[in-house]
Inverse folding.
């Protein structure tokens, strides 16, 4: 990676900016990436290896992982492979080698994009932006499944084992909003921005009511989860 990174002198990241986890055992590259991405408005956390990345991801939600291939103990490809068993978080893989076989292996594990070192930071930004846009593309039709429950987005219809579950108009609106942003945290203030919602406290009440209709155990939600200090996130199957 080039040593001379020219920082972008724009506004720093805010709480609504995409959150990126950089995983690289090389402290120089890790710090350069973190600083460069932060200068361009992203929130950034870092991890030195797969084990520390897992620990970080247990407490935080990320919009993108930038993952180095060559790491001690567990390679980036092995980490991506195990991660894909439980998460669809977008992954941009970095490698010091550009052999086609390695690229193919990474893509077969479910990696979204690949970038060989050394690279131009401007290309990194373009690839990050492209991956995030693909990951945030909102479905406007189709279905999302949550265990025994299926929600048809365009019709606003929730069913369990073929039987329709009654939704209020607000519950339908909330569920459609989440279904169009699967795996993306949605802030309370965003859900409460319309005047009729009753504010953020009312949103919490509405979410609890919705959980009683889509969760087998509403007190221990699996699909519609709370993101501490942020809001809520839907994890459909």
């Amino acid at each position: 990676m080039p040593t001379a990174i020219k920082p972008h002198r724009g506004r720093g990241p805010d709480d609504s900016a995409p959150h990126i986890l950089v995983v690289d055992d090389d402290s120089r590259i890790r710090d350069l990436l973190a600083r460069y991405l932060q200068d361009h408005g992203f929130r950034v956390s870092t991890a030195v290896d797969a084990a520390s990345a897992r620990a970080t991801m247990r407490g935080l939600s990320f919009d993108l992982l930038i993952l180095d291939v060559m790491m001690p103990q567990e390679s980036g490809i092995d980490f991506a492979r195990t991660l894909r068993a439980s998460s669809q978080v977008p992954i941009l893989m970095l490698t010091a080698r550009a052999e086609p076989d390695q690229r193919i292996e990474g893509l077969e594990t479910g990696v979204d994009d690949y970038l060989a070192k050394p690279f131009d930071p401007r290309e990194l930004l373009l690839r990050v932006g492209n991956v995030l846009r693909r990951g945030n593309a909102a479905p406007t039709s189709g279905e999302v499944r949550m265990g025994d429950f299926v929600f048809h987005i365009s019709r606003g219809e929730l069913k369990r084992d073929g039987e329709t579950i009654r939704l209020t108009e607000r519950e339908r609106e909330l569920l459609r909003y989440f279904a169009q942003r699967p795996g993306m945290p949605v802030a309370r203030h965003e859900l409460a921005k319309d005047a009729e919602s009753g504010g953020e406290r009312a949103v919490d009440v509405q979410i609890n009511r919705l959980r009683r209709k889509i969760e087998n155990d509403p007190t221990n939600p699996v699909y519609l989860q709370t993101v501490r200090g942020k809001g809520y996130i839907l994890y459909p199957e």
